Amino acid sequence: MIHMPSLPAQHGIAELELGLRLHYVSAGDGPRTIVLLHGYPETWWEWRHVIAPLVRAGWRVIAPDYRGAGGSSKPQGGYDKKTMASDIYRLLTEHLHIPLPICLVGHDIGMMVAYAFAVDYPKAVEKLILMEAPLPGTLTYDASVATTKVSNQTMWHFFFHNAQNNLAETLTAGRERVYMQHFYERLAFDQDAISPADLDIYTTAYAAAGAMRAGFELYRAFDQDAIDNKAALKKSGRLTMPVLGLGGTGSFYLPIAKAMLLEVAKNVIVRSVPQCGHWIAEENPVVFVEEALRFFGKAA
Q1: Catalytic annotation on 108?
Q2: Which of 98, 106, 36, 154 lies closest to 264 in space, CA to CA?
Q3: Residue 149 has what pLDDT?
Q4: DSSP H stretches of helix in 44-162
Q5: Measuring CA to CA, which residue among 214, 250, 263 is closest to residue 80?
Q6: Rounded distance, CA 148 to CA 243, Å?
Q7: Within a domain: residue 2?
Q8: Is 38 assigned a catalytic role?
């Protein structure tokens, strides 16, 4: 486990079922709760700069490692985002007994999980922040992936991670640090935001047995995610809780965010984070906290 001496945070493990444990970080004891869902290839450590400011503002903060990442179990399956959202719901309600509704933040893959959570448990989410990912099942996603396939730009890894015969696992085995460093640098505006020490932490997490395979399975589940998202939209319609789309000014996300989010939610605003690429909470944590607190309101 990674501990931060300056942060009054506690690490915990929730055994949801046989063979499935989720690691999480909990900080603060405020009356309202913010849940932070990280992206790939990261862990709860993504939120290291923002947990303390949110706690000082009066919030309770929960930052899990989702299924397959960090200190959580790495089962063979269950990487569709509907199942992963169920993991988070069970963590919050069965293990931590968090009062609902929560305020929920999802970044990258965590954004897909956060959306699935809001779809399946709408009464459990007061407000929702979605950052930096195309959402399977939307027209915007289909257009973005098609453009990438032709031009080999930002989302080329979607196709690499889906390679047949475990090719991605084979090519990255023993080279996790090289692969992840390229990943971070390619999508960052601030090249110093993820330091060599941070890279060490992420590399250790993803060099663990089964971790890279689990990360690739997140992407291999996108077709199922698209099916689930389309079915949910047809059945229940668009989300009704307030949704904030946050994107870095140096990222792919801002140009597609509003149109995409309006496909799946009725009450949407989009704001930009300056001097920032894909890794918002690490490249510009000050603005992230400001935007989150402005959107979520006061803790009490």
Answers
A1: yes
A2: 106
A3: 45
A4: 51-56, 81-90, 109-120, 139-151, 157-161
A5: 214
A6: 26
A7: no
A8: no
> Residue 46 belongs to what domain range?
9-296
| The pLDDT of residue 161 is above 70 | no
* Position 157, amino acid: H
One of 79, 202, 206, 219 is an active-site residue; which one? 219
Cis peptide before 274 (omega within 30 of 0): no
* pTM above threshold 0.90: yes
- In this predicted model, what pLDDT tens digit does every residue of 35-85 receive, in sequence order? 999 999 999 999 999 999 999 999 999 999 999 999 999 999 999 999 999
Query: Which residues 6+ apart lie within 8 Å of 224 measured at CB?
Result: 80
The reply to whether 136 falls in a domain is yes
Catalytic residue among 38, 107, 161, 278: 278
Packing angle between helix 254-264 and helix 222-236, nearest 10 degrees?
50
**Taking residues 205-223, what's their average pLDDT?**
94
Domain tally, the chain: 1
Kindly report, residue by residue over 106-131, the tens digit of the pLDDT: 999 999 999 999 999 999 999 999 99
Q: Are 157 and 171 in contact (CB under 8 A)?
A: no
CA atoms within 13 A on the CB side of 206: 29
**The residue to which tokens 């032709």 are assigned:** 150
Length of the chain, in residues: 300
CA distance 45 to 252: 23
Which residue has tokens 């995409």?
260
Which one of 80, 87, 108, 228 is the catalytic residue? 108
Q: Is 278 a catalytic residue?
A: yes
Tell me the CB-side half-sphere exposure of residue 196, using CA atoms within 13 A.
0
Question: Looking at residue 135, which CATH number applies to its domain?
Answer: 3.40.50.1820
DSSP state of 124: G
Q: Please check whether residue 53 is in contact with residue 59, taking contact to mean a CB–CB distance below 8 angstroms.
A: no
Would you say residue 83 lies in a domain?
Answer: yes
Residue 3 lies in a domain: no
pLDDT band at 14 (very low <50, low <70, confident <90, very high): very high
Q: What angle do CA 286, 43, 219 make, to 5 degrees?
A: 115
